[in-house]
């Protein structure tokens, strides 16, 4: 069975991109930039799609043990639920960036 080593350049590149995206979200949110909410939603959408692809790949295309398949499916489902909850929280946070003049209307 072939797979990707955890120390391969592909894994390191993806991990580096993930860390940079999360750091940008933290920095932009900390500086109260208006677009930080939209950037957060964008990053969460990317990771939700990645979790969905992992779920589909393991469920339908991988030749692995049932226990491994079940564990990846459960972790992917938990990650998707957490990302959806985070998107809902980000949308609620968006209200803090709306101009006070617009809130009164």
SSE arrangement:
Layout: H1 9-30, H2 36-61, H3 66-93, H4 100-104
Structure notes:
- This protein has 105 residues and is mainly alpha-helical.
- It has one domain (9-99).
- Helix content is 77%, strand content 0%.
- The protein contains four helices and no strands.
- It has helices spanning 9-30, 36-61, 66-93, 100-104.
- α1 (9-30) runs antiparallel to α2 (36-61) and α2 packs antiparallel against α3.
- The longest helix has 28 residues, at 66-93.
- The chain is elongated and about 60 Å long.
- The mean pLDDT is 82.
Quick overview:
This protein has 105 residues and is mainly alpha-helical. It has helices spanning 9-30, 36-61, 66-93, 100-104. The chain has one domain.
Overall mean pLDDT stands at 82
Poorly predicted runs: none
- N-C termini distance: 61 Å
Q: Helix/strand-derived class?
A: mainly alpha
Q: Biggest sheet, in brief? A: none
Percentage beta strand:
under 5%
Q: Order of helices and strands, N to C?
A: HHHH
Determine the fraction of residues in helical runs and give it as a percent range.
Answer: over 70%
Q: What's the tally of helices?
A: 4
Transmembrane segments: 12-31, 38-58, 70-91
Keywords: Membrane, Transmembrane, Transmembrane helix
């Amino acid at each position: 069975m072939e797979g990707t080593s955890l120390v391969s350049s592909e894994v390191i590149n993806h991990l580096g991109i993930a860390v940079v995206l999360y750091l940008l979200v933290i920095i932009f949110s900390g500086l109260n930039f208006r677009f930080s909410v939209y950037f957060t939603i964008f990053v969460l959408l990317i990771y939700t799609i990645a979790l969905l692809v992992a779920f589909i790949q393991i469920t339908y295309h991988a030749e692995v043990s049932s226990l491994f398949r079940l564990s990846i499916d459960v972790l992917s489902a938990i990650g998707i639920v957490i990302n959806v909850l985070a998107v809902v929280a980000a949308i609620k946070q968006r209200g803090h960036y709306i101009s006070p003049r617009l809130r009164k209307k």
